[in-house]
Protein 1
Amino acid sequence: MRRTIARAREDLAMIVARDPSMRSRAEALLHPALPALWAHRLAHVLHTRGHRHTARVLAYGARVATGGIEIHPAACLGRRVFIDHGAAVVIGETARIGDDVTIFHQVTLGAVGWWRDGRREPGARRHPVLGDRVVVGANAIVLGPVTVGDDALVGAGSLVLTDVPPGARVMAPAAEIVQRPSAEDREDAARLLRALATSGCW
């Protein structure tokens, strides 16, 4: 019981430290990451003890309550994992996340797909491993049994399919500023739009 209370206090302190909009631990109680993390801890214990259905129900309830933070009960999360904003975060069954990791919204830590995972050995890892102090930016996707090393940063919008060394930075291409298109370019775009609109692709 003391350990549970200590972890809860640690979570609250972590949220205040990493979210500038939170001014106190009392306010941090309303952060969407908390119900997701606390429900996952209980679901993980239930799952490892063979209560898979109950663990799934708990995980589903947390997903509904948090606006879409979906953490499989079998996934292993370290201490002080911070899920900022939280919307549409997916963490797969065999994912392992280290301590002091920060995950932003719309992040997927997933598998590559049943068509490949079905050929793996039974019990083989299908999801990523994140080391300690990793930061995963908004809308980043990390797929398969890859390892993201300690202190690495996966930038917003990145697609990661291979291992990332410790301390490395993975960055998606930045948006390109295009000058005002010419009249010819605008007419080409209009022709394409008309063709699509009349072909039933909408």
Protein 2
Amino acid sequence: MSELTLPTARQRPFDPPEEVTRLRRQGAMHRMTYADGHLGWLVTGYAAARAVLASPHFSNRPETMHPPLPSRMELVEKGRFKVPPGFFLRMDAPEHTRFRKLLTGQFTVRRMKMLEPRIEEIANACLDAMEAAGGPVDLVEAFALPIPSLVICELLGVPYEDRARFQEDSRILVNLETKADDALDAMGRIWAYLAGLIERKREEPADDLLSGLVESGELDDQDLTGVAMLLLIAGHETTANMLGLGTYALLTNPDQLAAMRDDPSVVDNGVEELLRYLTIIHLGPLRTAVEDVEIEGTTIRAGETVTIHLPAANRDESRFADGERLDVARPVAGHLTFGHGIHQCLGQQLARAEMRIAYPALLRRLPGLRLAVTPEEVPMRSDMSIYGVHRLPVTW
């Protein structure tokens, strides 16, 4: 079995790197060399990825891991690759369980349904502004980013007028080329801002999620700040990139665009198919074995790090027939874009609600929507840990 470093260069904007696709067709598990020379594993198969994500024999704590890229190895070498208080995404049970249980009730299907009228208002306001301005516009700036940003700000109780502060620092944190000191500085700025906001919530509570967490008294200010940081960054970075990249994919697949625009019965399947086909979490997740464990006939030794390549797993034809093709009409349950197991994305129902509303609203309001540049000129987020488009110039 050959040893490899993590391939990141994409030959086509919507597909995993060709080397990863070749590996997936050869098998599910591949030896991989990490940035510090550690030998671990790259998982490209669906069943193996799901098994690792579900297994209690793997840790999600970053201090146990060997990052696959030199830019992230720098944090380890500085001795600062640690879990911030309250950042439960990178914790293991039972610590993770305590935070997850506290927050699960805030993101139920029922509560997200209650948000839908407000999401529709926000989407229509963005479209009103686009029509008033006239094309061409950058769809990321005008539509894809404002919708989830405003929704998560209102849900958490973060003033939307402060968005420039945290959006720029979020971009620094997810940029794979960011130096460790710059990443830590950006994290420090977001932390200080949210710590001040939580202090204000304690003095003047409002009807929002952060005020409710403050009033519950179950978390101290450090944990509250970490929870707020995680929800704020995840709540706008992920869905914003799905809306931008998904629209780009539809604009370059006119038959799929027409189905999403003209047939309401397709939209739910279409959202799931775009999530599967595009899989914007394109570098990870990572796990480290805490004991020897066998996955798909391969023994992973205690201490070895595993990188799960979700875009490859979501194209595995043993699970998704004709998985290399975008087909918004097909039922596509079980994709791994939101993860699996105890760390499955807490905000997945919110993301689904935003996409189910935003895509049809955009395509029906602007039936002549098209790229304002050639497809080759669209700048891709290959340099970011969350994939997508940096900009999407469109007109109509």
Protein 3
Amino acid sequence: MKKLQFTRVCLACLILLVLGGCAFGFGSEQKGGEASPASADNELFIYTVWPAFYVKEAVFEQQIGRHLKKKFPELQIKHVHWDNPGRQYKDLIAAGTIPDIIMDDSHFNVQRYIIDNDLQYDMRDLIKKHNFDTSKLDSTMMDRMKSLSKDGAIYGLPFHVGDYLLYYNKDIFDKFGVDYPKNGMTYDEVYELAKKLTRVEGEMTYKGYSQNPGHYMNYNQLSLHPLHPTEDRANMTGDGWKKLVDNLRRFYDIPANQFTTVEDFYKGNIAMAVAGTDRIVKFYENNKNLNFDIASVPMFSDVPNTKYQPNVMSLYISKQSAKKDMAFKVIEYLVSEEMQIELAREGNLGPVQTAAVKEAFGKNLPQLQGKNIEALFYGKYAPATPARNPGLTYILVNTQYAFDPLIFKESKDSVTALRMTEELATKQIKDAKAAKQ
């Protein structure tokens, strides 16, 4: 009984905290150990979801917060990062604490979190009012933003891109006398390297190549969308999807090269792995003795010089914000060359990739020195997939399902694996429509 009473009291306290905004870190600023109320007029609430590393307040402060304080000394920034549980979209909305600026993934989360929660705001009027030149931003990333709406609405501006690279272990290449990968290699060329480098020596298995199938499919270089553009169903059984699957599964089919996870690259037995740019730092931190370098991702021979679609994290102004002009001025600064240079120094890429930004990349990270940084800027982005017709149901398709479990565990052929993935996604669409009705 006492335990039940205590639980009720705790729950009541939690509800009061949430309704008061304290659960999200609002309400007052700590100055000299004393709480002082922040002015509503000069307070701007920034909510970050992706990139995930802004969950650490110290990282947000280092990369963004301190620069905003310097640029806008009169502005009081409130920052909250998505967390589970307690700081998800639904929690902020339930508490009536709608952010002014949202930083989130533009590929998966805009529809299901921003639009479905009626938080979207078309920024075109603000762009015109503030005479902002969007041509300064990468055109493919801007196309990604424009693809979110059939009527040309711009719900956000690109801020950060999580590109992918080919990581390779120089010691394994040296051990077997194989030349290192180069920027611009085709999948066929990398496949030949993978066959040479996949070996079993005693208890040690050297894997020639590893890649996350979900990332490969989601940001695919053929610009294929898993949902049908005009109908409420999935669309994954065409020749393009089969080409994608066949291309990657041949690496998996090399004897002894069955994929585990690219996160194992730091352990030293994987010769090549495609992973995100942030892994340059993570692999080094996990194993400071790892002798590795980077090259551009493999490319299709008939789609040359083309890397993945940009995995863009963007800045959105909420429809409910009463400080849209203030929010836009902050966003305008965050995507300026000045700010993008500062972010590049910390190892972040964004929509501004001028010579000055490229020169600054990684300057604050000694572990990047000596690496083939040119690989990050090699090639062009694959075009963003076009917008679907208005009113269609959106679901997050688990494209990796075709590989895991259907190919990896159940040895399905490519056509069957894609058909089953499409059928599952179409059923999920029907279930989602029924739930709404």
